[in-house]
Design the sequence.
């Protein structure tokens, strides 16, 4: 901070973010003091923005719906660009890795049970039924 910055200090309250944040700035644009109602992660990302973004994704909702809800109740919302940056940088690969691990575990368990018939659409919830090979053949011949 420069000596001339001490003369006039402007306090700014940022409430467009998910948490309120307060900044004291001099007329020259130097930040004298700042405070946010929640901790900041690496690179200045707010913990609440990260949690809100990841929970929107994990809930199955989308940014537009939740943003509209927050607007109606006059709450600050994580910026759209921040939401997609968090989703791309932290969430998608982690969720895919978790899904691949769980899927591999289930497939390994099902392989030990013998032949398996998977019913349902593969893009949605798949209902898995196990049948013995002879039961499946007998059912097909009796139809």
Sequence:
């Amino acid at each position: 901070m420069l000596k001339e910055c001490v003369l006039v200090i402007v306090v700014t309250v940022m409430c467009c973010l998910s948490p309120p944040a307060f900044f004291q700035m001099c007329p020259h644009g130097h930040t004298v003091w700042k405070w946010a109602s929640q901790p900041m992660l690496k690179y200045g990302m707010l913990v609440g923005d990260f949690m809100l973004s990841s929970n929107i994704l994990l809930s199955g909702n989308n940014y537009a719906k939740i943003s509209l809800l927050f607007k109606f109740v006059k709450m600050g919302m994580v910026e759209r660009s921040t939401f997609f940056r968090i989703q791309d940088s932290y969430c998608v690969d982690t969720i895919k890795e978790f899904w691949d691990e769980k899927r591999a575990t289930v497939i390994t368990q099902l392989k030990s049970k013998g032949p398996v018939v998977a019913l349902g659409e593969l893009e949605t919830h798949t209902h898995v039924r196990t049948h013995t090979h002879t039961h499946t053949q007998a059912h097909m011949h009796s139809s």
